[in-house]
């Protein structure tokens, strides 16, 4: 696990380097959970003193540590569920004390269950344009809080969506990813409109495999006016290594790579038939070991208005350029969604 990814998701630098150098004899999830425990203890002590700013920061660092703790389990074990419950609890504790942002848990009706999301808003009386952020096979929801903070500083709201197959939507709600996922994004926009009064245009930002989900959402729902794809392919296949294979099977709720491949084909995009009126921005890292530039370029053909930006030494989703990437992208969304 690269330290750059841990920092991108909000871990404390000391925690990230300590976890990266943890002895092989110590189970990964235990090492990460111990770091979270220390941050939670600091958070409680700060809250008891009335130092709410410190408490909020420590709860969020604990959340980040627990994100990596639960990643030790690719399948839905009891331990993974417990760690994810703790993760959500730490993120909620930060939300309860936050005096700068409004952070609200959403339960979005979908199918026979619901999707979990977090609505992160500036403290303003006016509805703000919203950007839906979605992750991929292992990083979800609160993992993208730093991006939500950056959007809020620019006057935008964020929906940290855990789509079917992801996070609590899967672990608690029992929903898995399939070809109907686009409807979950539309249901999310309906919920935001009902909650805030904002009716569009919306943005959608997909990271890793979530880039495909974001592009599909923009193709299917005309309320999206701006779409970013950060590190995805239009025609994904199961990857030939154990971690990715187990993760995609859990995401899709299947038991073999053959079954996974069949479901993935229902998600493929073809610019010859799939088009969006949204403006599309594609981000690519030249050192990405998972997605090639040629795979990413296909997304550009989904829209008459599309742009590509490449970081030649960029890791997958630009973990190693996370500050510049986030600032560039948040500025881009502001310029497309917020009238100045």
Automatic annotation (TrEMBL):
Q: What InterPro entries does this protein map onto?
A: AB_hydrolase_1, AB_hydrolase_fold, FrsA_esterase
Which positions, given as ranges, span the membrane?
none
Q: Which UniProt keywords apply?
A: Aminopeptidase, Hydrolase, Protease
Q: Which GO terms describe its molecular function?
A: aminopeptidase activity
Q: Which domain of life is it from?
A: Bacteria
The chain positions of domain AB hydrolase-1 read: 129-226
Quick check: keyword Hydrolase in the entry? yes
State the Pfam families in the record.
Answer: Abhydrolase_1 (PF00561)
Coiled-coil segments, which residues? none
Membership in a protein family: Belongs to the AB hydrolase superfamily. FUS2 hydrolase family.
Q: What is this protein called?
A: Dipeptidyl aminopeptidase
Species source reads Amycolatopsis pithecellobii
């Amino acid at each position: 696990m690269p330290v750059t990814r841990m920092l991108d998701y909000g871990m404390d630098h000391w925690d990230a380097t300590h976890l990266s150098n943890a002895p092989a004899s110590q189970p990964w999830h235990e090492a990460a959970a111990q770091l979270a425990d220390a941050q939670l203890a600091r958070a409680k002590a700060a809250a008891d003193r009335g130092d709410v700013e410190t408490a909020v920061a420590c709860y969020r660092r604990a959340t980040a540590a627990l994100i990596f703790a639960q990643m030790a389990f690719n399948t839905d074990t009891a331990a993974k569920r417990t760690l994810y419950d703790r993760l959500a609890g730490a993120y909620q504790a930060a939300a309860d004390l936050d005096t700068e942002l409004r952070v609200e848990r959403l339960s979005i009706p979908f199918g026979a269950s619901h999707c979990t999301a977090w609505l992160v808003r500036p403290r303003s009386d006016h509805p703000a344009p919203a950007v839906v952020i979605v992750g991929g096979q292992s990083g979800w929801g609160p993992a993208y809080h730093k991006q939500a903070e950056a959007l809020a500083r620019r006057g935008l709201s964020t929906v940290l969506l855990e789509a079917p197959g992801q996070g609590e939507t899967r672990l608690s709600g029992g929903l898995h990813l399939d070809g109907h996922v686009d409807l979950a994004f539309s249901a999310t926009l309906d919920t935001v409109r009902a909650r805030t009064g904002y009716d569009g245009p919306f943005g959608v930002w997909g990271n890793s495999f979530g880039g495909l989900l974001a592009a599909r959402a923009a193709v299917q729902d005309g309320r999206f006016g701006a779409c970013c794809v950060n590190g995805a392919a239009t025609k994904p296949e199961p990857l030939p290594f154990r971690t990715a294979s187990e993760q995609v099977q859990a995401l899709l709720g299947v038991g073999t790579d053959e079954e996974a491949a069949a479901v993935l084909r229902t998600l493929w995009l073809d610019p010859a038939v799939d088009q969006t009126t949204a403006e599309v921005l594609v981000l690519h890292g030249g050192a990405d070991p998972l997605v090639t530039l040629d795979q990413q370029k296909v997304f550009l053909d989904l829209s008459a208005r599309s742009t590509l930006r490449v970081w030649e030494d960029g890791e997958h989703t630009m973990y190693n350029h996370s500050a510049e990437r986030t600032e560039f992208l948040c500025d881009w969304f502001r310029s497309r969604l917020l009238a100045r």
